Automatic annotation (TrEMBL):
One of its GO terms (cellular component) is cytoplasm. Transmembrane segments: none annotated. It holds the Pfam family Aldedh. This is Aldehyde dehydrogenase. Belongs to the aldehyde dehydrogenase family.
Length: 483
């Protein structure tokens, strides 16, 4: 079962007959969509883009109402990447859809081979609350580009944005192409009972396992965009001022509620104090030098709900009680769901703040003497969604990549790999299954169909039974050529 949340009482309840009716309408229309031309799909995407651009202010208001996200962050993290994905897809879709010729072995001479990209069919998108617009619309763009029918289910934790998305989808698409259902866990569970061809889920690892179990009932393919503790390594050659400033931005943007947020920092022991001083200076520049200034800052997103606020507040308290030093922050206000940008030093692997993904404005700082210590720690946990390295030593960076794994990685910056539609975005192991963005998203929502065309007499006919004489001799020769 998917878990209910504190927002569920205000959400529409699942109407299973209505869900199934829309699903069946989409299933009946799937062949029309899968046969659609590049021009027809591009027209759908352009209608979506026009509707988004015309409602930019309405979107910003909705997200601000949900968790006080600044308008600049809405532009940078919700609108810009989504419009970039749309524009990139529109530019390249015609090329992506073309069958791709591939080579054919000599033994199969007289034939040609290619790969066709076909729609998967009916797709379910289950999106999260932390980037409620981007993380629903970006995969939707890819699913439409690949010729699928889509049902979307946004998070109930951001109800204002969910209502905005419901209006947007209804105004742009007929239900037998794209539909959206609001609701809580009950709605998600009802949708997961339907035999979709593909399920795309963004959320935490625990719920991702449940989604995969549900998909197994119908043998539906899945994409899981999950999370985890994304580590940062700051070595002795790093530009500490630049590292501190970029990490401060990447950690506290969206209130720390980002799946690829820097979760914790390993800094070389010789640079710990200098790094901490630089980081605290960055907090002062960004959000103010006093607690009053920081709490009044319009640039700090709030925690999404009281449950999230209490979890992060308790995490800080337990971590300090366990021996961590509060370098800055720690203040909290329940009614406004505010938690100050917080930095903890003196953290060990056993500290409560290292138990799971933080998903809040708290940065633990650990120290290391040798990279092997860092490798051992990273390998002991789940495979992270992202890994960040600050170093001027190219050999050290390569050594880090050779000895760790992650969904993505960035050197001397954070988060920015998400903004490049030419890179795949996705996890590995416990941080996810599959990827998307740009061409990778188109392929995620497509079935790659292998096709071979015999256009002249087949040489393989010499191997037809009975297996004696020439057939036996030629088969033996052909095999020896590969030895």
């Amino acid at each position: 079962m998917l878990e209910a949340t504190s927002h569920a009482a205000s959400q529409p309840t699942a109407d299973t007959e209505r869900l199934r009716a829309v699903f069946e309408a989409q299933r009946a229309n799937r062949w029309n969509l899968s046969r659609s031309t590049a021009a027809e799909r591009i027209a759908r995407l352009k209608r979506l883009r026009e509707a988004i651009v015309s409602r930019r202010a309405e979107l910003a208001d909705a997200i601000h109402a949900d968790f006080r996200k600044p308008a600049v962050e809405v532009d940078l993290t919700e609108l810009h990447p989504t419009l970039e994905e749309l524009n990139h897809t529109v530019r390249h879709l015609k090329s992506w859809m073309k069958p791709k010729r591939v080579g054919t072995p000599m033994l199969l001479a007289g034939s040609s081979s290619h790969v066709r990209y076909e729609a998967r069919g009916t797709v379910l998108l289950l999106s999260p609350w932390n980037y409620p617009f981007n993380l629903l619309v970006s995969p939707l763009v890819a699913a439409i580009a690949a010729g699928n029918a889509v049902i979307c289910k946004p998070s109930e934790k951001t109800p204002n944005t969910s209502r905005f998305l419901a209006r947007l989808v209804k105004d742009v698409f007929p239900e037998n192409e794209v539909a959206l259902f609001e609701g809580g866990a009950e709605t998600a569970e009802a949708l997961l009972e339907l035999p979709f061809d593909h399920i795309f889920f963004t959320g935490n690892t625990r719920i991702g396992r449940k989604v995969m179990e549900a998909a197994a009932k119908h043998l539906a393919s899945v994409t899981l965009e999950l999370g985890g503790k994304s580590p940062v390594i700051v070595d002795e050659t790093a530009d500490l001022a630049a590292a501190a400033e970029r990490l401060c931005w990447g950690k506290f943007i969206n209130g720390g509620q980002t799946c690829v947020a820097p979760d914790y920092v390993f800094v070389h022991a010789s640079k710990e104090r200098a790094f901490l001083d630089a980081f605290k200076a960055a907090i002062t520049r960004f959000y103010g030098g006093t607690e009053q200034e920081r709490q009044a800052s319009p640039d700090l997103t709030r925690l999404v709900d009281p449950v999230a606020w209490r979890r992060v507040k308790d995490l800080i308290d337990r971590s300090v009680a366990a021996g961590a030093t509060l370098e800055v922050g720690g203040e909290a206000d329940g009614p406004s769901r505010y938690i100050a940008p917080t930095v903890l030093s003196g953290v060990t692997a056993e500290n409560p703040v290292m138990e799971g993904e933080i998903f809040g404005p708290v940065l633990p700082v650990l120290t290391f003497q040798s990279r092997e210590e860092v490798y051992a720690h990273i390998r002991a946990g789940g495979k992270p969604l992202a890994l960040y390295v600050f170093s001027q030593d190219k050999r050290a960076v390569e050594d880090i990549f050779q000895n760790t794994t992650s969904g993505g990685a960035v050197v001397n910056n954070v988060l920015v790999h998400l903004a490049n539609p030419n890179l795949p975005f996705g996890g590995v192991g416990t941080s996810g299954l599959g990827n998307y963005h740009g061409h990778y998203g188109f392929k995620t929502f497509s079935h790659e169909r292998a096709v071979m065309v015999q256009w002249m007499k087949s040489l393989a006919s010499v191997f037809f039974p009975p297996y004696r004489g020439k057939a036996q001799e030629l088969a033996s020769r052909a095999t020896r050529l590969l030895e």
